[in-house]
Structures
1.
Amino acid sequence: DIQMTQSPSTLSAFVGDRVTITCRASQSINTWLAWYQQKPGKAPKLLIYKASTLESGVPSRFSGSGSGTEFTLTIDNLQPDDFATYYCHHYTAYSYPFGQGTKLELK
Amino acid sequence: DVQLVQSEAEVKKPGESLKISCQASGYTFTTYWIGWVRQMPGKGLEWMGIIYPGDSDTRYNPSFEGHVTISVDKSTNTAYLQWSSLKASDSALYYCARPYTSTHRYFDLWGRGTLVTVSS
């Protein structure tokens, strides 16, 4: 089974900062990767799919890149609403593993 | 509106059975997969399994296979997640989620979650 590993587990930043979260797959997954944002008590919200395609309605300060085994989610000009937990997610016909999550905290 | 409406929170005792639901509306239920995702308290997201309502084709995460059963009722556009014998470790928030399409399987639609508490 493919394993997804995110880093860091926790990230502290200021409003206005640029941050990057990394997700690594245990084997090549092409670009079958999504990113979600989750706030406490809420369902995850899709941000990016196919590694780099921004979901409709998601602010352009979010961007994704990568292919194969290494992927990144970058958030430019952090806003107060962005402090949340972020998950990467590999999706195929038979398996849908998530990364363990990265909690983005206000410094 | 396109939505997934999940059943209310449950409190059960170890060894009891439970079936929670996820009712779809606003789209053709039988042509989209529906998956289940577990989130234990303070932890991350874990994919449990997924079902295609059109023919009940079901795929499980090996970590959950044999402990839960996923099913659907096409007459009510409802997907189910059930346990025959709950354990305390099944206490978690359970989400249903729908992949965008059968080709692009990222989850673009989520229910609000059903909290399951198992305690003696």
Note: Chain A touches chain B at residues 1, 32, 34, 36, 38, 43-46, 49-50, 55, 87, 89, 91-101 (CB under 8 Å).
2.
Amino acid sequence: EAGVVQSPRYKIIEKKQPVAFWCNPISGHNTLYWYRQNLGQGPELLIRYENEEAVDDSQLPKDRFSAERLKGVDSTLKIQPAELGDSAVYLCASSSPRDAYEQYFGPGTRLTVT
Amino acid sequence: AQKVTQAQTEISVVEKEDVTLDCVYETRDTTYYLFWYKQPPSGELVFLIRRNSFDEQNEISGRYSWNFQKSTSSFNFTITASQVVDSAVYFCALSGTNSGYALNFGKGTSLLVTP
């Protein structure tokens, strides 16, 4: 079974530019999470989806960040415009009740904003 | 609110030494899960273990062992006879019903094992 897929793996952009990250969760996993991991820190939740509904986006900086999960499968996280402080690794994870909500992580997208 | 504290920022040991990584947590959930993840230099998060709040039995897996004590809200991780390949950042994490099982991570402990 394929794991969580994320693309791109690396992205370098200039500040004020837009950027988007894509995540394809494990098939059948209805819960999808986006985390951000700053250098030297643990991952922090940005948003959690149950199917296509964002049920927890309290930590998402809504002035510049947006996310969507159309049809409850793939998800896209967007930043517009990017700031220097957005440089981090963006991790996607998915889970399912049948796996007792154990989260499976993708390889992450490393974003560098210059 | 949930909180995970990993007080040890960095640990350096010589190969074959035993090392214990500390984790203390706070939660109001009555049902919760505790995790340990390994993050090697390549960056991926590698799942090591999950314990639920109703199971305080210690667990051993090869050179790894975990000590879960609800009385002290701790979930410590011991590596016996450490090896260079154990060098990585180790994260303790907590999830619960009130957060929809989203993970709250500690800040991580960087372990360096030298030959």
Note: The mean pLDDT of chain A is 94.
